[in-house]
Amino acid sequence: MSKIKAIFTDLDGCLTDGGMYYECCTNAIPREGATFEMRDSARLSFKKFHTRDASAARLLHERTDVKLFVLTAGTEGRNGAINKERMKVYYLTEPISHDIPDKLEKITEICNRYGWNLNEVAYIGDDFFDIEVLEAVGYVAYPVDALEGVRLRLYKGTRLEVEAKGGEGVLGGFIDNAISNGYIDLEKEDG
């Protein structure tokens, strides 16, 4: 049985619920004919992450040799501070990758660097932009509320069921399922 060497996951819609909460009236001034006119643009203030994902990432880091990577097409300017702060507790193998329009290209580059084949890695995605990667990797997962076009496709890779919505423990559910099915061993090679 093949073992998972790395897990790659999308961020928004998988590790978060996909919602983005903006502050927008910080420097608003009254304007004739309208309630407010914005002097400054809105800024992202809140995102919801789940502690089950962070604890699963810690387990992965402390008790396995599986590496964890987070990729997002979201721009670092819009999401960077929030994402970077939260990812500190995920024990990522490399810093979060922002502004990644071609995730398959990035994952292939990382796999080449570490000497892995695409069939040895897992990907968790929820959106149309994740389909190309989901079709290329050996292990596939998505939140139960992923787009229908993602959920209804047949993938060549092993699909591991996740019973959580985005932002409600998708990564934790995936890791639990992978361990239960023998795709991840709870022991490091060096001891």
3D structure, described in words:
The strands form three sheets. A five-stranded parallel beta sheet has the order 6-1-7-8-9, sandwiched between helices. Strands 2-5 form a two-stranded antiparallel ribbon. The protein has helices at 51-63, 76-87, 103-114, 131-134, 148-151, 170-180; strands spanning 6-10, 21-23, 29-31, 34-37, 43-46, 67-71, 121-124, 139-141, 158-159. The protein has one domain (6-20, 48-180): 3-Layer(aba) Sandwich (Rossmann fold), CATH 3.40.50. The relative contact order is 0.22. It contains six helices and nine strands. The chain has 191 residues and is α/β, with parallel strands linked by helices.
